[in-house]
Give the backbone structure.
Amino acid sequence: MIDASPVSPAFLLDQPHTLVERDGVRYTLLGTAHVSQASVDAVRAAIDSGRYDSVAVELDEGRLRAISDPEALAKLDLVKVLREGKAALFAANLGLAAYQRRLAEQLGVAPGAELKAAVDEANARELPVHLIDRDVGLTFRRAAQQLGWWGRAQLIAGLATSLFVDEKLGKDEIEKLKQGDMLESSFGEFAKQSPALYDAIISERDRYMAARLRQSTVRAREVLAVVGAGHLKGLAEALRLEPAAPEAVLSELEQVRKKRRIPWITLALTVLILGGIAWGFWRGGLEVGTDLLLQWVLFMAGGAALGCFLALGHPLGALAAAVVAPLKPFRPGIPPGLISALIEARLRKPLYADFLDLRDDVQTFRGWYRNRVSRVLLNFILTNLGSSIGFWMAGARIIGKLT
């Protein structure tokens, strides 16, 4: 049974909200601005009213930990992040953190303060707290898999802009932000122009949060759900009309296509290059074959080492990357950037203070190099980038000589 026309409580009449009843549960969806003190006050007033027996918030465990524990980054195992292949995701989270930090400095309210207030007030009243948002890493991966290579490049550019651009928001931008979503605003205009990205970070999350609400609050009767105002309409619609069971919706929206076990394009080019070198030895003799092989080694090793040096990596890291890079066809699962980053993390181990200063340091170009944590990430990114450039340059050079 679905009834979308219950009466709003008086203390919410001046706040954006929607009431939905489904399966015997009344949901009060309170739309908030992630940068507004008024939203913080409204959340506290709603919970303090005593009307609700459960509280749900637009957070996942990682984001809750980040806004609740100022030293969460200092507890991070950076080596584990690298080994699990989460360096790019970690860099993306730094971009979001830097963007939110600048907003807090400009507006005087930390982004997500109303979500933290909801959790704190609910805990103080011993009310169940439900985290209903999808893991931000999963959202990024689903967004990336829906974009082409150009779209992924723009996605990276949006994150880079969040990291380094320090322009203050004007009044119009702030008002738009109050009605939008933090992830969407972090990518600027690209989010509005890319249907695939918008679907992953807004529309899918509306359905996901609706399913999580239905799944986690089956024993509740009055639920307050605190979400960004930009989700209010879509969340209410999904909560009213979604016909599928919550478990089926969550399973669908948590799926990420596995990467192809065999990267056919890279494999074909590698076979072509190695075959060309072998052909050079066979038809051109030792001199031609050796020259082609030398081209491969120099471009691959040189590109990886140059990337490491541009990241101001340790010389041993550059040397190791240079040795590993030419072996790319025989160890595709071990990128040279991982090797240089692990060496950097071991030999120049980040200090506790580096983690504490990380959110401030990543807002400036110089800070990325000064902070040992972000410099490890630079080693990973730039060494892999140099190796990839060297791969294509070596291939072009070898094919050019053979033709």
